[in-house]
Design brief:
heterodimer; A: alpha+beta; Helix Hairpins; Immunoglobulin-like; 4-stranded mixed beta sheet; 2 helices; 11 strands; 29% helix; elongated; B: alpha+beta; Cytochrome C Oxidase, Chain A; 6-stranded mixed beta sheet; 4-stranded antiparallel beta sheet; 18 helices
């Protein structure tokens, strides 16, 4: 199942790759030492001559210790570096992140216990329509594919958080505060908007439908 | 004497007021107020009013109902002053109807639903009978409680107005009602709590009996138990911490299992949403504050004074007080459960939901209990910092302290510095709930994000407060098992201190989607990434410690190696969160659940298991059964991974946490793509089964511990060959532990033991210290 935004998928693959590398090193090392350095049956040697009441002699190696300070630091610097660009994508105006000339449209989205309320502002019906799904009774938002939308979020009561898993988008809707969530729907169909921040009794059923048309 | 009497009278009045307070709110035998409608007129119950309830067509109420069918009922009353011809009189009657099951729905203008109960509207006052629609539940017998008022119509309260109450029942088709009714979650929880508590009491009495079978009487039991309850000895208080921690570990586990039953299949109704919300709140609070921290404190109490060669902690009475705040706090935290009104806000207690009127009254007690725990932690913090700073044995400088002691020092430092923020937040939230201050009320200018800052400024170090002692434990058990000195002692200490320091700079990664300033989110992202470096140092140092050693396999060795695997996995999955573009996807999903259970169970709990197998012989003087220990490890390690590993995938698929159920792609919203693919259902069942296996495997350890107390082999002073002072004294240690303070010999050439500025700062000038 294809879930998550483009930035998420790209980053996840890189992180996942490095996780495997680190995993192989650590677990390979551990597996080898667990078996190779196990004591023979019944034998309890005292390699470092531990004795009660005596602080044992130091077992250091500065070069080795520096190695596993510096190498992970390099890896982490690299992972931080590749995370920086996509991170600004999450909030910034697309004009700021190099999608020049492309316009965006703002949709109001208000969380209430326990439903989502959409506000199309002055957008044309082609770009944004609100409604109620007849079959389920859920609120519904109909938007156009491949258009950049900025959801202007707030809440009437407690904190909610819309979660659009297909695009990996999530942001808290906080009472008394306006937050924004950028979504560019790139698939058509009907999708599920979930509430990700605990908001009371009907939290699990606080859902809405996002319909994307061509 | 006179003042005393007045004092007692005031107390009695207050107690009376407290007892009466709830009854004023309840339906005191009349009808709850609706809009401007009736206010119960009189409290005289009268036999001449008879309520009735029939089907809408006038036929009698059937004995059974069909599941999920919709019924229309007519109901009302005859007799009393209101029973006159229609139209001749206004304000003839009122009613209140409660159904124990199914859903009532108002029909027409005369009735209205208020707080789950059906009552009349002002217009409905002019009627003597009404109608209602009721949707039957799927099973179980149902009771309708109907309260009616028959009113003389003069619009004032008078003794002529009468009321009466009747209950009407229906059973489900194909069952005689109660037998087929599934046990509801709260009942199961009560039974389990009762069972656990009885087992605890039986275990205590049994331990007493086996201590001295010939003196099994109340006369000798009383001083014995009083000795435990009033002791200030660090070993006894440690044991109390230990017993309390294990008890709540089981309670938190039972709550978790109940939640797993609910989630085993999609759309389950084993727990109501309300119960589920209470359970996950209590699971988090109980496991962190009432299980993990007391268990760690238990070991700290027992082992730290022994390891540094001190006779007791610096402030034994404060130590006892810090412990005894715990049981009281735990009662407060759990109080709400017994009335079905426990806190339902999540263990993080986000605002404004915690101060929201709809939140259960138990949340107030829950906050009060946590304020007590803040006090307890502060007292314990002062105590341990002072003890470790001033009471180390001669010859033990800072850099000769055993790593477990170092870890406790770093951990209590973190706790001591972070917990005031939490305390402030809790008190503000408590005041918001009790005296209507508006710290977090947005409509009065309060700021809900402020709570998140206060909470996570404490909450993130708190996670390290429980994991750093785990590092200390593993450093001890693994090095001793490998028969080696720990590799890179200094870098281990610096790494722990580094983790403790960094923990204060990274808390914002819990708030990356909270509406916090984007600039601050970038900072938190970068600092969080750097947590991996000191943690990595520790893992590599542990691995290198095994190099060239001779690993003696014992139960605690297995748990330590298991810890390395699970903690590394938890550490790796933790690397995904700080990257903001991924965090927006993973935040509040089961990926987070999987990650922190890998760290907190695979890290903290596994380390605590290792510590139990490692230090239990020292505490009890008996060796634990290794075969049962290995069995426990194998079952627990496999089921543990089966339990939490699939949650990573569920989280990436989009399964959100704190949800009472989940939606598959083909679901009741058939047109809509639900969040989860169909196989998610199977994985959830798999997780639930593993959860039960993991939960039950813990009993093996408990049985092992109790059996060991009586049947275990006598333990020598140093069964594993460790070097620190706790192995110097006999098992179990005498009281006081050291007749004469031991002196630590450092076999290294020491010039670093010269007093430096830090030591001069921490040790008073007039005290003679041997460096």
């Amino acid at each position: 199942m294809d879930v998550g935004g483009a930035a998420y998928n790209e980053l996840f693959d890189i992180f996942w790759g490095w996780s495997i590398v680190v995993g192989i090193i650590v677990f390979g090392w551990q597996l080898h030492h667990s078996f190779f350095y196990r004591s023979k049956d019944g034998e309890v040697p005292n390699v470092d001559a531990l004795k009660v009441g005596e602080f044992p002699r130091h077992n250091d190696n500065l070069q080795l210790e520096l190695t596993w300070i510096i190498l992970p630091t390099l890896l982490i610097l690299y992972l931080t570096f590749i995370s920086l660009g996509p991170a600004s994508d999450v909030w910034a105006d697309p004009a700021d992140v190099g999608v020049e000339g492309e316009d965006y449209f703002e949709i109001g989205m208000t969380g209430q216990q326990w439903f989502w309320d959409f506000d199309c502002r002055e957008l044309s019906t082609d770009l944004c329509t609100t409604g109620v799904d007849e079959e389920t009774g859920l609120t519904k938002l109909i938007v156009k594919k491949d258009v950049v939308y900025r959801f202007n979020l707030t809440s009437e009561d407690v904190i909610h958080a819309p979660f659009l898993v297909q695009w990996g988008a999530k942001e808290d809707a906080v009472p008394g505060l306006y937050t924004s969530m950028w979504v560019t729907p790139d698939m058509t169909g009907e999708f599920f908007i979930d509430c990700a921040e605990f908001c009371g009794d009907d939290h699990s059923y606080m859902t809405a439908i996002l319909e994307v048309h061509v | 004497m006179k003042t005393n009497k007045r004092f007692i009278a005031i107390i009695c009045l207050l107690a009376f007021a407290l007892v009466m307070a709830p009854t004023f709110e309840a339906r005191s035998g009349g009808i709850t107020n609706v809009d401007s409608g009736c206010t119960c007129h009189t409290s005289t119950s009268s036999g001449d009013v008879s309520p009735f309830m029939t089907l809408a067509n006038g036929s009698a109420l059937p004995d059974t109902y069909n599941a999920n069918e919709v019924y229309t009922f007519a109901f009302g009353f005859t007799g009393g002053p209101g029973d006159v011809a229609a139209g001749t009189q206004d304000n003839m009657g009122g009613f209140n109807l409660v159904a124990s099951k199914g859903d009532l729905a108002s029909l027409g203008d005369f009735t209205t639903m208020t707080a789950g109960q059906l009552t009349h509207t002002p217009a409905g006052n002019d009627q003597v009978n009404w109608t209602v629609e009721w949707t039957a539940p799927s099973s179980g017998s149902v009771d309708f409680q109907l309260t009616v008022n028959s009113v003389n119509g003069d619009g004032s309260q008078s003794d002529d107005d009468h009321w009466a109450q009747s209950t009407f029942s229906m059973g489900a088709v194909g069952g005689s009602g109660d037998e087929t009714e599934p046990a509801d979650g709260l009942t199961v929880l009560f039974s389990a709590l009762l069972l656990v508590a009885s087992l605890l009491i039986i275990a205590v009495v049994y331990v007493f009996y086996r201590n001295n079978p010939s003196a099994f009487s109340w006369e000798s039991f009383k001083p014995w138990i009083a000795g435990w309850l009033t002791s200030t000895d660090h070993k006894k208080v440690g044991t109390l911490y230990f017993v309390a921690g294990l008890f709540y570990f089981v309670v938190g586990g039972v709550i978790a299992l109940l939640m797993r039953i609910q989630l085993a299949v999609p759309g389950n109704d084993f727990l109501t949403q309300d119960e589920y919300n209470q359970f996950f709140t209590l699971h988090g609070t109980v496991m962190i504050f009432l299980a993990a921290m007391p268990l760690i404190n238990g070991f700290a109490n027992w082992i730290v004074p022994l390891q540094i060669g001190a006779r007791d902690l610096a402030f034994p009475r404060i130590n006892a007080m810090a412990f005894w705040l715990n049981p009281v706090a735990s009662v407060l935290i759990l109080t709400g459960v017994f009335s079905g009104n426990a806190a339902d806000v999540g263990w993080t207690g986000y605002q404004p939901i915690t101060s929201w009127p709809g939140t259960h009254s138990g949340a107030t007690f829950w906050l009060a209990g946590q304020i007590m725990l803040v006090a307890s932690s502060t007292l314990a913090g002062i105590n341990f910092i002072t003890t470790i700073a001033t009471m180390r044995a001669p010859g033990m400088g800072w850099m000769q302290m055993p790593l477990f002691t170092w870890s406790i020092l770093v951990s209590v430092m973190c706790l001591f510095i972070s917990i005031p923020a939490f305390g402030i937040g809790l008190i503000e939230a408590f005041l918001d709930r009790t005296i209507s201050t508006a710290f977090f009320n947005t409509s009065a200018g309060g700021d809900p994000v402020l709570w998140q800052h206060l909470f996570w400024y404490f909450g993130h170090p708190e996670v390290y407060v429980v994991i750093i002692p785990a590092f200390g434990i593993i450093s001890e058990t693994l090095a001793t098992s490998a028969r080696r000195a720990i590799f890179g002692y200094k870098s281990m200490v610096l790494a722990m201190a580094g983790i403790g320091f960094v923990s204060f700079l990274v808390y914002g990664h819990h708030m990356l989607t909270s509406g916090m300033s984007p600039w601050l989110r970038f900072v938190m992202m970068i600092t969080t990434m750097f947590v991996a470096i000191p943690t990595g140092i520790k893992i590599f140092n542990w691995l290198k410690t095994m190099h060239g050693g001779s690993l003696v396999y014992r139960t605690h060795t297995l748990w330590s190696l298991g810890f390395l695997v699970t903690f590394t996995l938890g550490g790796i999955s933790g690397m995904f969160f700080p990257s903001i573009a991924m965090n927006t996807h993973m935040h509040e999903t089961y990926f987070v659940i999987a990650h922190f259970h890998y760290v907190l169970v695979g890290g903290v709990v596994f380390a605590l298991f290792a510590a139990i197998y490692y230090w239990f012989p020292k505490m009890s003087g008996r060796m634990m059964d290794e075969r049962l220990g290995v069995l426990h490890f194998l079952i627990a390690f496999i089921s543990y991974n089966g339990l939490f590993w699939p949650m990573h995938k569920l989280g990436l698929w989009g399964m959100t946490r704190r949800h009472h159920t989940y939606f598959l792609q083909a679901n009741e919203y058939s047109d809509v793509i639900g969040t989860l693919p169909a196989e998610a259902s199977g994985w959830n069942m798999f997780i639930t089964i593993n959860a039960f296996v993991f939960g039950l495997s813990t009993l093996i350890m408990v049985v092992n511990m109790i059996m060991t107390l009586f049947k275990g082999k006598k333990a020598p002073a140093d069964p594993w060959g460790g070097w620190s002072f706790e192995w110097l004294v006999s098992s179990p240690p005498p009281t006081p532990s050291f007749d004469e303070l031991p002196i630590l010999i450092d076999v290294n050439e020491t010039d670093e033991a010269k007093p430096n500025w830090l030591m001069k700062l921490m040790v008073p000038d007039d005290e003679e210290v041997m460096y």
